[in-house]
Amino acid sequence: MKNVSFEVKEGEIxxxxxxxxxxxTTTAKMILRLIHPTGGRIIFEGKDIWKELKDHExxxxxxxxxxxxxxxxxxxxxxxxxxxRTLWQAVNLLEKKPSNKKEALELIKESLVRVGIDxxxxxxxxxxxxxxxQKQRIMIARCxxxxxxxxxxxxxxxxxxxxxxxxxxxxxEELREEQGTxxxxxxxxLGLAYYVSDNIFVMKDGEIVERGHPDKxxxxxxxxxxxxxxxxIPKLYRKLEGL
Length: 243
Fold this sequence. Notes:
By secondary structure, the protein is α/β, with parallel strands linked by helices. Helices cover 44% and strands 15% of the residues.
């Protein structure tokens, strides 16, 4: 990584855009405390997350407030457990937990309804029995339970069918609107980033080579790599968006 620096404001959606190997996912993993950075600082709520969050409770609190939706919905579940297990884990992370199991189950059912899933369709089922789109919706239901301040969404639509992608994007936008959640959206698709983002950061070879409002990045790119990405936006999409 080469001096990657950016800020995410409350309720803002920012996109990290670039090809495979550009450093997007590595950046995400450092923000999530999965990879230790070799230098620099990652500041969340005024604290360096690597130097100041040391004890179990402070790290657990960080996990409540910063959550991830990963690229591969199939790898996010243990195949030996029903899919709702991930929602029970979210309930157990809550600072103020439901008073009993019945209330917890009602919270889980409510979260599923919020993301467009009938609880009867998935409760008790195993990962192989539901679709990739349903799996990603359940991960967003997990976020709805936890109400994190920041979601890191790493290519959340790349491995699900096209008919499900719009719904996943809409759900993320609803989290932003209803709960003020900030989102770091990681994608190789500049057209999608243009659609969802308040700001775009284009990454190549471990550094940010272009940054700014989507209109500026897409309509007036200055870096040669950004220009290549703009040219790769499907022509039909560009026509519909007036590009």
